[in-house]
Amino acid sequence: MTETQVEKLKLMVIDDEPDNLDLLYRTFRRDFQVYKANHALSALEILDKEGEMAVIISDQRMPEMNGTEFLSHTVERFPDTIRILLTGFTDVEDLVDAINSGQVFKYITKPWNPERLKVIVDQATDTYRLVKKRTQELRRSLRRESLFNAVTTAIRESVDYNSMLQKIAVTVGQAFEATCCLLRPIEGDRLTGDRFSYQDPKSSLACIDFDPSFLIEKVLETRHYQLIENTYNNQPCSQLIVPISYQQHLLAVLAIYQWGRNASWQNEDIQLITGVAEQAALALSQVKLYQSLQEKQEQIRAELEVARQIQNNLLRQTLPEIKGAKLQACCYPAREVGGDFFEVFVHPKGDLWLAVGDVSGKGVPAALFMASAISVLRRELSQETPAEPNVVMHNLNNALCNDLIGNNCFITVVLACYTPTSKELVYANAGHIYPMLWSHQSTVVEKPNYLKVRGIPLGILPQWQAQSGKLVLASGDTLLLASDGITEATVSNKLFKAEKAEGSRSMLNQEGLWQLLQEELKPLSLNNLLARIQEDNHIQEDDQTILSLEVL
């Protein structure tokens, strides 16, 4: 069959008059594949056998079924066909019926002018080609949109990277009616051992019957799709291998097999598959990145959990039993690790050292300086005869100052030395909130005594200088050291039994902390106190540490 014959459009002529039918046939036989019928029923049989015609020319007056009725039978089955009606009379109602029900392109009165008819048929074929072109473009667009929607839905329903690969293989395999579809992931330009496949349940062949190795190597080398058509078991077989790549990175290869089908891959199909591959590549790259971030986050969480445990172990897990005194301490970081710390150290000579500190910032950097501060502090307190608290603070600053200044950090810390035998308390304060001292022996509720001797935080200046404060405690006195994570917590006024403005929230401050202390049941429990604050302060924005010394 020649190329000219292949390109000929189909044209059908129907007329019950043999002379007219023969004339129509001879008029168009050179330019069309012409099918002729002498009545409507015969024409319908030809359509059943030959399929869609580009143009149908039908006489109106025919036995059994007129032209209008016949053409109306073709509208639903062949909507793109161009219909021309030949009529020997000009009845308006029949013509309107022909145009409406038969969707007639033109009607021509008999006897017709052959040249005029040829012009009209040329117009009809141009219209047919345009309609077919637009119809095909619309079908391609709808098919592309449908396939893209199917792939997008499959991707969205995937719970992880592997399930997404499997859904892509199944969706593409079903959409293109493949015998089987195989998807192989690639890492570092090498195939992984994973295989994700779709198998046509009606086919007797499986993916293992096909070997795509050679074509996959070609794809890895060229980064371009590969197509081969041959035979397998005496049946035509087509293999199409498409790369799935994003920003020059090859993520996977998609192998599609069609066995037992005579139709070869069309450019339209190949372009559609490559478009799907581009869409899948974008989704896969995003999921892969997300999965990688999740793995890194999980690794970071695991490392932070270890760091949290290490930091927690740096703090005293049990507090010493001191004759004539009771100790309590709590420390809750805002994140996995934090910059708050406390220290309780009993010197062999009997003195009790207490400290609460707060490194600026949060998280890992603050935790590292917190660990350094505890280490240096314990070294200073372990001396045979520890220095005065203000001197210990001076030494802490000397040891940590360069690193603190270099990292734009500082530490606030209050350090106190209590001698049980004399009940003397000596303290130094480096920019920390004031310690609170009050007596349970007092019969009148009074404000606490704020210990206000204080210097600048550590890490501000190369040399730290400040005096120590001194006082003597009495039985019933309670010393409270806290971090600003407690006093700066935002709480609602309903937390206090004494009513304030309804529904408002404000910073707790030391005055609010003092009021809560007055409302606490005796004996004092720091755990209960912090639980009340944290229950009302839904988001803990800063580390919270508190330590108390009660003189019995």
TrEMBL record:
UniProt superkingdom: Bacteria
Response regulatory domain residues: 10-125
Signal sequence residues: none
Name under which the protein is recorded: SpoIIE family protein phosphatase
Entry-annotated residues carrying 4-aspartylphosphate: D59
One Pfam family matching this protein: Response_reg
Source organism of the structure: Halotia branconii CENA392
GO biological process: phosphorelay signal transduction system
GO molecular function: kinase activity; phosphatase activity
TM regions (residue ranges): none
Keywords: Hydrolase, Kinase, Phosphoprotein, Transferase
Keyword field contains Zinc-finger: no
Record-linked InterPro entries: Bact_Sigma-Reg, CheY-like_superfamily, GAF, GAF-like_dom_sf, PPM-type-like_dom_sf, PPM-type_phosphatase-like_dom, Sig_transdc_resp-reg_receiver
